[in-house]
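Handout, page 2. Input:
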Amino acid sequence: MISKYIKPIFPLPTSLKQSGKLEEKIEVILFDLYGTLFISRSGDISMAKKKSPQMERLEKLLQQFGIKKGSQTVLKRFYAAIENQHEILKKKGVDFPEVEIDQIWMRVLENDDLETVRAFAVEFELIANPVYPMPHLEKLFSVCQDSNVMMGIISNAQFYTPYLFNWFLDSNPEDLGFYPDLILYSYKFGYAKPSTFMFQIAAEKLKNMDILAHSALYIGNDMLNDIYPAKNVGFKTGLFAGDARSLRLRKNDPKCKNLSVDLVITDLVQILDYIQ
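Output:
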């Protein structure tokens, strides 16, 4: 099922160069996923909305699942359902809401069979947002494990996001060296980046392990969604500028106007320069 959607994607170079330094030893590296560890055609899953999914494939997918509605109708209902849920959560005080995509699809497809809905959601996501591992991903994980550097994830994500590790690396995040308590996905909390919500949770978990915030390095491709909240809780920050598709400098955003980073890296393997 999955293999028909997966094709190699290669990063597009940016004009930025590796720069910066770390004054202190890093004990933990926390990563964004889409656009950082994995090449993403839309840079971030929330941006799939702005791209037109491959309509022919979507039509076939609807036929495959016996869905009688047209692709445009389904898409319209899908995005409307997300907006509606965002409004509900905002009224409850959530600054940057996140939905549970399987619950959204249940409403849109009018189907309460979770297994079927999730199977559909996975294929839809692969059509809307093709992904592929960034170069040197396995080497990065391997060296971090060997160097006893703890790894974690703070990412806008859905139930299918962890599958990326199984599909491409034939392993789950925990077996690759990610600390279970430091794997934070937005759909589980109802908060998406650039909210500091998940970052605050991560900082608290590190504190309980006697690890100070400035001993943690957060790596992401977006100055607003990644660097801004990470810096807010005291993490060291690294901007991943290895793919022009996903690099978001946000120069016109007031929050990013005077925002600086500790590191700029253009290849994941460059992280190893700072931990070895």
